[in-house]
Sequence to fold (361 residues):
Amino acid sequence: MKITLSLKTKIRLLFAFLFILLILAILPFHEMQETKADDHVVRYYEKLAEHIHKERLSKEETTQYLYGFNFRLVENPHPILHHAKHPIMRKKGFETIAADGHYYLHIITPNFRILFKDDSNTFERSYVDIYLFVLVMILFMFIYYLIMKNINDAQEQLKSRQLFLRTIMHELKTPIAKGRIVSELIDDEKQKNRIITIFEKLTHLIDDFAKVEQVVSNNYSLNLHAYKMNIIVQKSIDMLLLEKTDTIKLRNISFEKINVDLDLFCLALKNLIDNGLKYSKDGHVTIEEEENLLFISNGERIEKPLTEYFKPFHTDTKNKNHGMGLGLYIVHSILQMHHMTLEYEYRDGQNIFRVVYSHLR
Fold:
């Protein structure tokens, strides 16, 4: 599914970003560990070098002095000085060098230069950062695996649900089509027309249900064109297949055009009209256009914030007219696809649902 692939891509990018952040966090930690060990050695060497220079020790005296601290004279210092990296610390009179897993103290005086290997302090690399990095990476990979597995499972469930719904819709169309044909054989014209209307309404409901299934599964591509608002509203009313439409009052509906997917947008408006008729006290609804389109009906204020009704299968079981709780969820989903919003206001005993599209003009 298109939306699933998009979600997987976002998750991959998120984990890649977290991986980079982890590396950026580990590197300073590693440097801090090494610097901490180096600083301890440098401070130690600084005291030794300070004593050597202060006492003006000769080369032999310096050698003898450092032997007492477990230092060993390097007879051939050139390979180490040549191949070693930059000194860890270079101060007046001495250098601290790390090479081959050992620390070296390079004494520099006006009279001589001499290199000592420190046998008491070894340059040991800390592996705490590596262990931490591996542990966090294993945790990341496990979380990533669980998330992707859940997405794949959800994708399979979605495919199964879609196949199930499409099979049901296909199977329902056959008896409806046969019923529509058989209804033509009824002699009573009034009864025949009534039954034909019922079968046509069932056909429209199945078609609408198919569109809804595509919308909620993010599998629908909008077919946008400019339509006059009066045509849009009238088509929405016609989709209700009402025998009489005198319960619907139109006020100030303009001839201005707006870009919409006609069938899908009218399906959203049809749901708003149907809700207005169902839940109003007098069974009437007024459709009025100001800057936006208003659906006004007399009735009780909705019990919860409007956003609660945007959730699927939300329903007010206290109301005898309650359905499956998909009406406003469908409306909200369709309007979102059109970059529109639905607002609610309760004023003077009237429920007012407002489809906001003025920003698109």
